[in-house]
Amino acid sequence: MDTNQTDKRNKKEDPAVTNFREYLRIKTVHPFPDYDGAIDFLGRMAEGIGLPMKKIEVSPGRIVVLMTWEGTNPSLPSILLNSHTDVVPVFAEHWKVDPFSAEKFENGDIYARGTQDMKSVGIQYLEAIRRLKNEGKKLKRTIHLSFVPDEEIGGNSGMGRFVYDEEFKKLNVGFALDEGLANPSEAYTVFYGERRAWWLRVKCTGNPGHGSRFIENTAAEKLRKVINSFLDFRAKEEEKLKGNSCLRLGNVTTVNLTMLEGGVQYNVVPRELAAGFDIRIPPEVDLKVFEERIKSWCEAAGNGVTHEFIQKSEGKNVTSTDGSDPWWNAFYAACTEMGMKIEAEIFPAATDSRFLRDAGYTAVGFSPMNNTPILLHDHDEHLNENVFLKGIDIYCTIIPALADVPHSK
Ligand SMILES: CSCC[C@H](NC(C)=O)C(=O)O
Ligand SMILES: [Zn+2]
Ligand SMILES: [Zn+2]
């Protein structure tokens, strides 16, 4: 890139974009995220905006940063704006620029890990609050902003703990916003629920012996049956999705064979082989029935086939998208009044929203990124600065609409 051009652009850069790029340069990347760097940065942001900030250690060395903008009626249930500070690792050699340089191209595309997932959202919340405060706005309900660690490694040591912490209970949360996904079209996607993640390890045992013989009842024969049952089901679900344009990924069950373990030597038939599956189940599927199905697939594969869950999410809470629900109504009306097209879906993977919903809170997943390819966890993750800035405008409308929800919830 022509650095003169970049400098020229940067001179007139919106300060919100500059803050976003600074946040992106902090390497909060697993497996050793620089959380101290993020906390220092957020502390400076809070000070600049005039928001009181708390640090809450929810598990050893894992700190949630909490900022608060008190409402005119702080006894009302509050609004929580949640984002996670960590990002997933990169394969830097496959990026066109250093993934932690936050380089901006001529067309305004900013490249960095976390541009979509989800440092953009964290800064958009803050810049929206800064603008609303500077305009002298007073909101009825208190707004809390939480910046949580460890979402990218499952969230158990971050939001999974925070949501049951006394400090969280004190927040009296009525409604929470958390992350969503980009949408390549003009529309914005909003998530009102998530599929349940089941990570399953199926172990097959059988007779060992010499690799040159026809050994009977081997672990491999059983494993083949297990894999076929799971993957046949996968194919049916894929067909279901492809055959019905009303369905989205979040409405069907996905199964992927993600792990294979076993074997000691090429000429030894192993006594034990195991397969790992990543299964994602929509909220409407009855988990008991589905688990029975899994058991029957394992039983049908022969004796000595057992299974264990590595991850088993069971929550089935979804946020109401009924027009009569005051939270949804406020959110949806604010969006549509701005002329936004909304597509309400089930999130195909897992976010921190599941902890909030499982603990009984109303949560919506929303990252205001339209006309943007979905690049979370991918090489060359990027976001255009204009989309980013438009997101701040959007929050400047949505946040007051939620904070002014008039009912007694
Ligand atoms: C079950 S914890 C894992 C969380 C992770 N979230 C995302 C967004 O990739 C996932 O769905 O695999
Ligand atoms: Zn995320
Ligand atoms: Zn992620």
From TrEMBL:
<dbReference type="Pfam" id="PF07687">
    <property type="entry name" value="M20_dimer"/>
</dbReference>
<feature type="binding site">
    <location>
        <position position="152"/>
    </location>
    <ligand>
        <name>Zn(2+) 2</name>
    </ligand>
</feature>
<dbReference type="InterPro" id="IPR036264">
    <property type="entry name" value="Bact_exopeptidase_dim_dom"/>
</dbReference>
<dbReference type="GO" id="GO:0005737">
    <property type="term" value="C:cytoplasm"/>
</dbReference>
<dbReference type="InterPro" id="IPR002933">
    <property type="entry name" value="Peptidase_M20"/>
</dbReference>
<dbReference type="GO" id="GO:0046872">
    <property type="term" value="F:metal ion binding"/>
</dbReference>
<feature type="active site" description="Proton acceptor">
    <location>
        <position position="151"/>
    </location>
</feature>
<dbReference type="GO" id="GO:0006520">
    <property type="term" value="P:amino acid metabolic process"/>
</dbReference>
<keyword id="KW-0862">Zinc</keyword>
<feature type="domain" description="Peptidase M20 dimerisation">
    <location>
        <begin position="192"/>
        <end position="302"/>
    </location>
</feature>
<dbReference type="InterPro" id="IPR010159">
    <property type="entry name" value="N-acyl_aa_amidohydrolase"/>
</dbReference>
<feature type="binding site">
    <location>
        <position position="117"/>
    </location>
    <ligand>
        <name>Zn(2+) 2</name>
    </ligand>
</feature>
<keyword id="KW-0479">Metal-binding</keyword>
<feature type="binding site">
    <location>
        <position position="377"/>
    </location>
    <ligand>
        <name>Zn(2+) 2</name>
    </ligand>
</feature>
<feature type="binding site">
    <location>
        <position position="117"/>
    </location>
    <ligand>
        <name>Zn(2+) 1</name>
    </ligand>
</feature>
<keyword id="KW-0378">Hydrolase</keyword>
<dbReference type="InterPro" id="IPR001261">
    <property type="entry name" value="ArgE/DapE_CS"/>
</dbReference>
<feature type="binding site">
    <location>
        <position position="84"/>
    </location>
    <ligand>
        <name>Zn(2+) 1</name>
    </ligand>
</feature>
<dbReference type="GO" id="GO:0004046">
    <property type="term" value="F:aminoacylase activity"/>
</dbReference>
<feature type="active site">
    <location>
        <position position="86"/>
    </location>
</feature>
<dbReference type="InterPro" id="IPR011650">
    <property type="entry name" value="Peptidase_M20_dimer"/>
</dbReference>
<dbReference type="InterPro" id="IPR052083">
    <property type="entry name" value="Aminoacylase-1_M20A"/>
</dbReference>
<dbReference type="Pfam" id="PF01546">
    <property type="entry name" value="Peptidase_M20"/>
</dbReference>
<protein>
    <recommendedName>
        <fullName>N-acyl-aliphatic-L-amino acid amidohydrolase</fullName>
        <ecNumber>3.5.1.14</ecNumber>
    </recommendedName>
</protein>
<comment type="similarity">
    <text>Belongs to the peptidase M20A family.</text>
</comment>
<feature type="binding site">
    <location>
        <position position="179"/>
    </location>
    <ligand>
        <name>Zn(2+) 1</name>
    </ligand>
</feature>
<keyword id="KW-0963">Cytoplasm</keyword>
